[in-house]
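Batch job 17 of 40 flagged for manual review because the log was empty.
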Amino acid sequence: MTKATEFMSTTHPLRRRTLLRRPVRRRPLSALAAAAALLLTAACASNSGGGGGTGSGFTAPDIPAQKSLGPGEGTVNIVAWAGYVEYGQDNKAVDWVTPFIRQTGCKVNLKVAGTSDEMVALMKTGQYDTVSASGDATLRLIAGGDVAPVNTALVPNYADVYPGLKNRPWNSVKDVPYGIPHGRGANLLMYNTDKVTPAPTSWGAVFTPDSPYAGHLTAYDSPIYIADAALYLMRTKPELGIRNPYALTSSQLDAAVALLKVQKKQVGSYWSDYTKEQAAFDSGDALIGTTWEVIQRAVAAEGRVRTQAILPVEGSTGWSDTWMVSSHAQHPNCAYAWMDYIVSPSANAQVAEYFGEAPANSKACAQITDNPGFCADYHATDENWWKEVYYWTTPTAQCADGSGRDDCTAYAQWVTAWNGIKSS
């Protein structure tokens, strides 16, 4: 690894404080990412046991969690989404890294990753201590033996994380936690209120054949988007027997793929870089499609068009990112110090407000200063609202629906299916 200077990022895209960003996921799957997917397929298919509690069902590699903390090593190497590790590089007022260094003596070396696949590849090098992984990467990292279980007793601020984010299928295995929740968001339905009438209430607005908005639909560009179609089918075609949009048998996956191939004929653009979707709505090229709440607020701030973003009647998919520690961490004590710090009420409030997501720490909302209504806007404390959100979870052969079945399709099959949809 090429070492950065004190709290210096090896890459950092320009950001405007008034335009909060979700991570930019903009590149297609690499061969290494596909190989990681195949590894996960093998790891899950080889296990016959069902899931325990609310965690994932497959058996993870036998890697012990850290038992105690020692002195900090003076450095921590971090892989993170843009906007998660700010040290004043774009705005001197946006800096939660410097206080961490002063408190712990652990200098921060940051590598900003553009995609979940890139994160998986970087963590496989063993050169990084901790990563802010999304749910479409976490189980790949666990199955590959690239991350270790987390001893939450060594992370005092974990006690204040919302219970709805703990021991979930994307961040635990058989009730063993593999990370510290960072924040959460939902994939909502955004539409141009002047052009789309009547106002939609269902995902059927983007999945119905012969849409009046054909050519002006926008959709998320990732294999995990298959879950959005599966969720719609789960609610509208119960005869398919879908219980969880990330736990699909071959026939259920085929049904979701068929729906997405119909949709593709009407999609004007796919996006993974949020600025692309914002530009499409600002220009009027996009009229309706899946979005993040922060994107809709950015469009509203521009003031060129009027839009709304809703949680449709079927619910939605969403994301909850997780701080994980490398199984080969060279600086594990500083990594634990970082995980505890970044989910502390003050730091978690700062990153949530800057980034545009609901914080994970239940005490963070009291620390929000710039926008007193922020937590209400992002539904931070509304657990009933989040019950309608199915967070990204890496598909595995061991079904994630709690059934104990092992006949589900794994991520590698989703990758193949997505490539087929895009080329159809």
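Reviewer: the log was empty due to a logging misconfiguration, but the result itself is present. Residues 1-54 have pLDDT under 50 and may be disordered. Unflagging and moving on to job 18.
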